[in-house]
Design goal:
alpha+beta, Serine Threonine Protein Phosphatase 5, Tetratricopeptide repeat, two-stranded antiparallel ribbon, five-stranded mixed β-sheet, 27 helices, about 700 residues
Length: about 700
């Protein structure tokens, strides 16, 4: 005979083996058994919190609570909070997809309640956004975080708003969008200033500094780090202060200033030693050892690295252990102790493989390749070089290769579809011609009575066929024009690629010659040439890919209100260094209130090409950018005092003719694609573009773009 158990009895069976180790939990259990309704589940949530150290058991208990709540208190805030609690449990096991599912359930329940708990829903949207970011879904991450921001703003909850803006800044940082991340962290910092919270102010300044450091703007990042530690000194938070000191040391290390780096690492080490934080001490010793190694002080480097290894050796922190072994291997190699170097480098690779850290594994292969190459074991050097190349390709080239394959597949599919369409049209014409002949034969048999009707039908059919043939002829002419353009562009590109390849081959021979003679110092003069070739080649390929994408996909602008001055400033910041190298002065006269209705990426492409061209064909001169309103348009002018163009070149400037492609004043190469893309993007966004130029005096482009 099977006895049926009540939901409460089942729940007590689930929680009884592991919940009640302490008197507090015992009392909660007793209270839970006596209570009814919503109060019982409030106590159940407290019981869940007591199981944070056992996430799998917490999940089982939370699931049982949810089943019971659906029967006893469906459609309640307690049920929504239970789903939220179960989501937290999955996070502890890194199960972000299951966590997100429970957060969706929590929102679904909470939004149907008669009493709308705005703060709870805002917090759930925020956590959902972070989950999507962990899963690599940036679009959904931003969508949910923006929903959370909107709700916190409605209720005026500044603490929650600051936290979510921090989270959104992290999403932008993960995408490499540093200006957007910095802007959000600055907003949070202003909120911290208004609240007078020095601890949060210090944290925000540190976050801004981190963005600039990752953006490789080290000096600016250091300024924010120093401001951060000044605030921490006033509130005497030693543990966090140690982390800040280490951050500053890492920046100096990235800048190659290892003596300054050691000073700050030592400050952090002293604090961590006082706080008896062994893991952080291990990190500090490793950082100090690496800086001593870079300075060639092998004795102090070894002392610190071995201290770090002693701390990490009994842990499962494989990535840290791998780094320390790798540094020791490099140290022994520099000392000429090849046996010890090989041993430590192999240990480094072993730890990286245990930790399944592909960048660390790639680094391990690289170091072993360099080691065996230096020690003359060419077979092993080759083996590890091949492993390194494969690992490196898997990290850096997989996505690019996939995009190229998709682009090629799309191109081939569209090419096939165009051919099928053409054949179908030809077949239709043949069928219509056969039909016409058949009808003509029938009309002849019908005789004179049907002559007028037949004549009218004949005229109609003849007109239809003629129109369709004319249309097909136009399409063939357009296809022929596009093929000629494509062939001409690829001829230009192949010529430039051949020149770039020849330059690299020549440089390789020079490098091989000087290295063979032990004269590496003679390689410095060709470094600038190689760098220039690389930049020209990169710019050329980027424009070719952009043009190809336009030809295959077309332009579908996503227009919005844009500040002309802000977008111009962004592009000027990107091109500032190029202008300074050529001695050009960039002058702007753009209205602060001028806004256009345009796709952001299109407008950025227009500005980059026009300002970049002005700089390319000007030397020791001036590039001027100005704007003004005229009716329903903003008129943007980009002019220069450069070499200008003859009249015949101005007339064909927006075409891809080879005659219109020339080098800049410093030998910069072009493809002829830039201005073609500018014209297409301007027109797709409802605008127009004109150009005026006089040889030897300069060029001025005028762009008309609509207001909202």
């Amino acid at each position: 005979m099977i006895l049926k158990k009540s939901p409460l009895t089942l729940l007590l069976i689930v929680i009884s083996p592991f919940l009640f180790a302490s008197s507090d939990v015992d009392s909660l259990e007793q209270l839970f058994a006596k209570q009814k309704g919503a109060d019982r589940f409030e106590t159940g949530l407290q019981l869940c919190d007591s199981m944070v150290e056992e996430p799998e058991q917490q999940i089982d208990f939370a699931k049982s609570l949810i089943l019971l709540a659906k029967k006893e208190i469906p459609g309640s805030i307690q049920l929504a909070r239970l789903h939220h609690k179960l989501s937290d449990s999955y996070i502890l096991l890194d199960s972000f997809e299951q966590s997100s599912q429970q957060l969706h359930y929590a929102i679904e329940v909470a939004e149907k309640l008669s009493t709308f708990d705005t703060i709870f829903i805002a917090e759930v949207y925020s956590e959902l956004g972070l989950n999507y970011n962990e899963l690599g879904d940036n679009s959904n991450a931003k969508k949910n975080l923006l929903l959370s921001i909107d709700l916190f703003e409605k209720v005026g909850n500044s603490d929650g708003l600051a936290d979510v803006k921090n989270d959104l800044a992290v999403v932008f940082h993960d995408q490499g969008k540093y200006p957007e991340a910095i802007s959000l962290f600055n907003e949070v910092y202003q909120m911290d200033l208004a609240a007078g919270d020095k601890r949060n102010q210090s944290s925000s300044l540190n976050n801004i500094g981190r963005m600039y450091v990752d953006w490789k703007k080290y000096e600016t990042g250091l300024d924010y780090y120093f401001r951060s530690i000044e605030l921490l000194d006033t509130i005497a938070d030693k543990e966090v202060l140690g982390i800040r000191y280490n951050n500053i040391g890492m920046v100096y290390q990235l800048m190659g200033k290892h003596r300054e780096a050691i000073i700050w690492f030592e400050k952090a080490r002293k604090i961590d030693q006082e706080e008896n934080n062994s893991i952080k001490l291990g990190i500090r010793f490793c950082n100090i050892g690496n800086s001593y190694l870079a300075l060639g002080d092998f004795k102090n480097a070894r002392i610190n690295l071995e201290k770090s290894l002693a701390i990490f050796s009994n842990s499962n922190m494989y990535s840290r252990i791998s780094k320390v072994y790798g540094s020791l291997g490099s140290l022994f190699l520099s000392e000429g102790n090849f046996l010890a170097a090989e041993k430590h480098l192999l240990h480094s690779l072993e730890m990286a493989e245990k930790g399944e850290n592909i960048p660390e594994i790639s680094g391990g292969y690289s170091k072993l390749y360099q080691f065996y190459k230096q020690t003359g074991n060419h077979k092993k050097a080759l083996d590890y070089y091949e492993l390194f190349t494969a690992a490196n390709d898997s990290i850096y080239n997989l996505q690019a290769s996939k995009q190229i394959e998709e682009l090629e597949a799309q191109y081939q599919n569209e090419k096939k579809e165009a051919e099928i369409t053409r054949l179908e049209k030809e077949n239709e014409l043949k069928i219509k011609e056969l039909t016409f002949r058949k009808r003509e034969r029938n009309w002849a048999i019908a005789g004179a009575l049907l002559f007028l009707v037949a004549a009218g039908s004949l005229f109609f059919l003849f007109s239809t066929v003629k129109k369709q043939k004319a249309k097909l002829s136009e399409q063939n002419l357009e296809l022929d024009r596009l093929n000629k353009t494509l062939n001409r562009l690829f001829a230009i590109i192949s010529h430039d690629l051949r020149n770039a390849t020849a330059a690299y081959q020549s440089s390789a021979k020079v490098i091989e010659h000087h290295l063979g003679k032990g004269q590496p110092e003679k390689l410095l003069p060709i470094a600038a040439e190689i760098n220039a070739n690389a930049k020209n080649l990169s710019a050329m390929l980027e424009k070719l890919l952009q043009w190809a994408a336009i030809q295959m996909k077309g332009i579908s602008p996503d227009r919005e209100n844009l500040s002309v001055s802000e977008e111009v400033e962004k592009v000027i910041n990107l091109l500032k260094n190029d202008a300074e190298k050529k001695g050009n002065n960039i002058v702007t006269d753009v209205g602060a209130d001028h806004k256009i209705y345009c796709d952001r990426e299109s407008f950025s492409l227009i500005l980059r090409n026009l300002i970049g061209n002005a700089n390319k064909f000007t030397s020791e001169g001036e590039v001027a950018i100005s704007s003004k309103k005229d009716g329903q348009y903003v008129i943007l002018s980009i002019s220069d005092t450069g070499c200008g163009m003859p009249k015949q070149m101005v007339e064909g400037i927006f075409k891809s003719d080879k005659e219109n492609i020339r080098q800049g004043t410093s030998g910069e190469k072009g493809t002829g694609l830039g201005l073609m893309m500018v014209k297409e993007h301007v027109e797709k966004n409802g605008g127009s573009i004109t150009v005026e130029s006089e040889e030897g005096k300069g060029t001025a482009f005028t762009v008309f773009l609509p207001l909202k």
